[in-house]
Amino acid sequence: MVEIVIYSIIIGAIGGACIAAGASRMFHAPEVQSMGSFRTLGEMNACGGDSVAHFSFGLGFLFSSAASAVAAGALTQDVMHRIIPNWAAGILLTRNKNVEETVQDPGKMAIAGAGVGAVLVTFLNSLSSVIPQKLSDVASGVLVPATTWLINPVMPAVFWLAALDGGKSTGIWGTVLGGISALVSGNAIPGIVLGILIGKTADENGYKSNVVKILIAIVVVMFIAIAYFRGFFNNF
């Protein structure tokens, strides 16, 4: 048990620092090289610089991550891509609401992410190691299906409402691309996030802007490619 805790603290701190700093650096692309998930950037933007929103968003995936750790003995990608960066941002925003000095500061995010990662990974690994096999089987049969309901359709609905709340453009783009994403990949969240991005960019620069045109073209090509390689067109 002591060995698990020591390794978890080290791995959690290193991984948490890297992923939090990488997510923060994405706010400065393309001026600087970024190293993060586009999905993470979109989800953090959706929180609007509100510490409570960041904590709540991460908390929603804590239960699914804990269930996976107990049932399968493995950490999901949500631990690094969703919980750690959002909780790191939430911690920094409790003291300073200026996102440019907190969430968009890779150094501060790395420090906060290291602390969150060390605690979170240690907690999940310790929880997994002390749970008896019978309880693990129960978790696998009961908790995992419950978290599936959280991820789909609860989370897509939350992001869709955020898109509608962002204005007419984000609402329309979020709804259209979310529907296409659900048909093509089975998950509406990527499309809704892209819709929010396109809608907000269009509101700020107008549809005649080259940035908006290029962004729309990239999204169209991306969805066509995903649909092709997933065999979507074979159904017609």
Helix content: over 70%
Distance between the termini: 55 Å
Oligomer: single chain
Q: What is the count of β-strands? A: 0
- The domain count comes to 2
Strand count, sense and barrel status of the largest sheet are:
none
Q: What would the average pLDDT be, to the nearest integer? A: 85
Radius of gyration over C-alpha positions, nearest whole angstrom: 19 Å
What does this structure look like?
The chain has 236 residues and is mainly α. The chain has 2 domains: 1-131, no CATH class; 151-236, no CATH class. It is 78% helix and 0% strand. The protein contains 9 helices and no strands. The protein has helices spanning 2-25, 38-46, 51-72, 77-93, 106-130, 133-165, 168-185, 189-205, 210-229. Helix 2 crosses helix 8 (189-205), helix 3 (51-72) runs antiparallel to helix 6 (133-165) and helix 4 (77-93) crosses helix 5 (106-130). The longest helix has 33 residues, at 133-165. The protein starts with a helix and ends in a 7-residue tail after the last helix. The relative contact order is 0.11. The model has no long low-confidence stretch (mean pLDDT 85).
Summarize the helices and strands and which ones pair or pack.
Elements: H1 2-25, H2 38-46, H3 51-72, H4 77-93, H5 106-130, H6 133-165, H7 168-185, H8 189-205, H9 210-229
Helix pairs in contact: 1-4, 1-5, 2-4, 2-8, 3-4, 3-5, 3-6, 4-5, 6-7, 6-8, 7-8, 8-9
Briefly say what this structure is.
This protein has helices spanning 2-25, 38-46, 51-72, 77-93, 106-130, 133-165, 168-185, 189-205, 210-229. By secondary structure, the protein is mostly helical.
